[in-house]
TrEMBL record, chains A, B:
Keywords: Dipeptidase, Hydrolase, Metal-binding, Protease. It comes from Hoeflea algicola. InterPro entries: Cyt/Met_Dipeptidase (IPR051458), Peptidase_M20 (IPR002933), Peptidase_M20_dimer (IPR011650). NCBIfam families: PRK08201.1, PRK09104.1. Its EC number is 3.4.13.-. This is Dipeptidase. Pfam families: M20_dimer (PF07687), Peptidase_M20 (PF01546). Residues 201-361 form the Peptidase M20 dimerisation domain. GO terms for molecular function: dipeptidase activity.
Amino acid sequence: MTDLTAALSAADAQFDESLERLFGLLRIPSISTDPAFAADCRRAGQWLVDELIGLGFDASLRDTPGHPMVVAHHDGATPDAPHFLFYGHYDVQPVDPLELWTSPPFEPEIKEIAPGRKAITGRGAADDKGQLMTFVEACRAWKAASGSLPCRITILFEGEEESGSPSLKPFLKANAEELTAECALVCDTGMWDTETPAISVGLRGLVGEEVTIHAADRDLHSGLFGGAAANPLQILSKILADLHDETGRVTLEGFYDGVEHTPAQVLESWNNLGKTAESFLGEVGLSVPAGEKGRSVLELTWARPTAEINGMWGGYTGEGFKTVIAAQAAAKVSFRLVGKQDPDQIRAAFRAHVEARLPEDCSASFSPHGGSPAIQLPFDSPMVTKARNALTDEWPKPAVMIGMGGSIPIVGDFQNILGLQSVLCGFGLTDDRIHSPNEKYDLTSFSKGIRSWVRILQALSKP
Amino acid sequence: MTDLTAALSAADAQFDESLERLFGLLRIPSISTDPAFAADCRRAGQWLVDELIGLGFDASLRDTPGHPMVVAHHDGATPDAPHFLFYGHYDVQPVDPLELWTSPPFEPEIKEIAPGRKAITGRGAADDKGQLMTFVEACRAWKAASGSLPCRITILFEGEEESGSPSLKPFLKANAEELTAECALVCDTGMWDTETPAISVGLRGLVGEEVTIHAADRDLHSGLFGGAAANPLQILSKILADLHDETGRVTLEGFYDGVEHTPAQVLESWNNLGKTAESFLGEVGLSVPAGEKGRSVLELTWARPTAEINGMWGGYTGEGFKTVIAAQAAAKVSFRLVGKQDPDQIRAAFRAHVEARLPEDCSASFSPHGGSPAIQLPFDSPMVTKARNALTDEWPKPAVMIGMGGSIPIVGDFQNILGLQSVLCGFGLTDDRIHSPNEKYDLTSFSKGIRSWVRILQALSKP
């Protein structure tokens, strides 16, 4: 029996316990954006520290001005083994609207979601607790099979990924020497489909912005003032409606500066994946591509920038009716960035767009919520090739290189602060409902995810 | 001492107790739109029944499918005295946002709001508890001075005015014989300014509508789906932004059908009132007239129709940021009507406007919130002239005939169901903050309001 075979067998043998451990982590409501859950975030971090110490890591909880980091080191089997930095995050998204969950978000269960297809349900199952635990459990399998790990590993688990990572950059800067390695491994991305693993090589950036329109100094009766007084909901609707033109393009001044034309051969390779608008959108009950006209859904979500309204509120929103003209109205807006689009320039262009549409007697206030440029990773570095081959060995179909609609700012920070390239490999699926009610992680994503990391660790340990 | 002088003296002598009684009513949180306050609504109605029985009325609480009506009769001093129906409402608006109140909404106080100017504060102080109590206390003054009332009086107090009056029409129809009189007196309107009383002769109608846009079958991650999936907040923003053109006109098909040109002499009389955009809007921190361009603020609020967004919500609206594309978004929209605009036609035009702007894979649902046409009352009926002269006797400046931005559907119902004209006479002021935090009613509105009704009752009792 080779080391690899033994480690894979160990992963299979311990799988029921792996699942129990993941459930333990999923039961902790570590919602980072809501201050009410700060103690739970800390508890989730400490839970991971304890697990890692049990695996022979030198692990500790590191305080930050926000939620703590988990940092852990393992020397590996030989002193000259290659050294990797693994990243995941233990915090999760809020759970509202709670009434749409079919079982409580922090009481994980195994459910049959289709004939022969089971999934782990609960907030964080896929984003990112289930994913980071694939790596932890792969380390455990290697430890069980060989007594050590085939590589030197440093682990960094963050607790603020879902709330803009305010402490991350300062922490990387302050601990650059301790965190450096040959390459970073990040497990927060998805597969192409249930049979096809993927390595993500393009990540859209993100600019988040909250805007509040201020009109009268109090809420007004629409009978007394309607027709004469400025209505901030009307002004905000116009501002937001004007973000797109009739072809779906974003209208902000200079918005497309730095957006590169996607090469024809890349578009062709994506077209060959056979993903139609109907199949992509059909999973969520839609069928017509929104956004820029004349582009495939893969290009729209992997290679094109967007402007989205993520939340909006103002006036009376309770039961019944209230004929009020609100004093203010607000929206949370975000922009997905590609190529060399500059987050600061786009934030400024949005603010100018708002200001240009304000009546003289109204005002706007803004608060920024994170900004990170897009990232393009190599298609063909040695690390990527090794990981790709290891994935192909595990899954029914060969691994593919894909773009990614979401943003993982950590990849840019690793590049800029630690000088590290990243390999992005994860086992999420598009129907995981991350950030939504009834989040799930396929049982196969978890079991074969663990086995994938067992294989990747061995592949990367070779010169 | 004449009867009138005696009754006015009695009103003055009892004023401190009048105030105590009003405070008692204001302490009952009779919010009709929120089912949680149903028992309080009933309690407010019963409080009024008890007061009226104490004044010699034959008064009772009448159940409806919603909140109960208060109905009371008093025969007056002589069997052939003219007979009037007085209307007010004991329910109040919700109080949110509660944090903007400087004192609790249901703990009324007397505050000095400007040098020498005092006001009664609390939800309902002006709309409509303070107003209806001016009439109740005027009856009490007549009773104290002369032992009876100079007219026959029927009183109808409603408990659903702020929630669309669902029970009112059926109740009027079922009790038409009992409620009929020579003319209705309604106290739910305002003065021109602190020195100038007013009788309102034009009332805008109202159509309320709630619309919900449905897109994906779940909330989506904007990274995975942004740029490809329909965003209901974006669709709704566009729908609402499109309600007005660049000149401020409402764009709904056929919206201006039945809107009459305001006669030049009426516009001129309004211009002579000297109300500028600056003085009208300045009271609420604004300065630029919104809505249709090139019209005075009085014309805009008294004689022109509007479309207003009264509330809007969707997506993530909590602390922090969530990069979600919502499954649905909703708004409460209302239209103020004038002339012969047809509420049903306007509701249908709005729904068509929404449907025409929906992507194929999205849908809209609607729920109606009341609809009533505009009403034009006579400028010069004998009743109006008597009331006008009585007001002029009480206040520093002569009474004026004004339009009104708000809608009081009861006036149309009295006309259509009971065959009664109404005289609209109230003592509210534009800075009363009705429907807003820190609602107030000037102490003078209350004291001279009582004295005004003492005078009007006598004027109306004469042939």
